[in-house]
Amino acid sequence: MKRTNLYCVMGHPVAHSQSPWIHARFAELTGQQLCYTRRDIAPDDFARSVHAFIQEGGRGCNVTVPFKFQAAALATRVSARAQLAQACNTLTFEGDQILADNTDGAGLVHDIEHNAGVPLCGKRMLLIGAGGAAAGVLGPLLHAQPAQLCVANRTLERATELVVRHQALATLQKTELSAHTLSGLDTQFDVIINATSSSLGGHGVPVAARVLAPGALAYDMMYGAPAQGFMDWAARHGAQPRDGLGMLVGQAAQSFAIWRGVLPPAAQVLAELRARLNGGAA
Ligand code: ATR
User: Fold this and answer.
1) What average pLDDT does range 226-240 have in this prediction?
2) CB of 130 shorter than 6 A to ligand 1
3) CB of 202 sitting under 6 A from ligand 1
4) Which CATH superfamily is 3-102+246-278 part of?
């Protein structure tokens, strides 16, 4: 009998994860047979859990907080983008090989350019934050060739470290890449991306409204309640707000394509997921 193609998302906590629903929809719509579950992993049990999943026949897994940094260390091969990010959200198991990749940035860029319809080439961009979420997307943002990309963070040293690590790529892409403090921003940007966890700590938007060019795209990488404060702020100041739900579906679509060799219809699944989360039928 053919074995079921097993996949999962590993994180802690992971009960809220929409990934099982998203991948089940992708599988239905592309005619793929697979089973995708969520696994809540104790913080010190990640490596053992990955190997146990491989033994059970697991073909791949998504990795979320807090394991994105540990995941690459388990891999026998790490993609260039995961290496640059120093974080991984997608593991693929092939024989005795473990391949690590990071599809977060590709999901974000696809959502901005294709779903929101905002091309990034030549734009003035601001990335707020320099933690894991920001590190995962900076490389793919540079590949989209913005004219300027400022990384602003509460702790300047972290922004500087991220900028130094990505400088060679920025030079290749002809993007002016720089590090700033949050209060040191005195110009306007066409695209502003919030990659901080400020809202989770109950804090407000970490930058002044003067960073928003008229009609700018203001993107929060979170979705639901944690993104609402930033979205309301953006709308109040004449910007175009967008949450990170499309990025979530986009990164999942890229992982699915790596595993199954077929790109699922992400825009359709995004619309269905939005309706589902808003209480509508999906
Ligand atoms: P994640 O994996 O979600 O990115 P992280 O690596 O802990 O988590 O990074 C959190 C990011 O949010 C950092 O950029 C952090 O700024 P510091 O590097 O200065 O810690 C930022 N952040 C968290 N709370 C914030 C706040 N109240 N105001 C501004 N930035 C905040």
Assistant:
1) 97
2) yes
3) no
4) Leucine Dehydrogenase, chain A, domain 1 (3.40.50.10860)
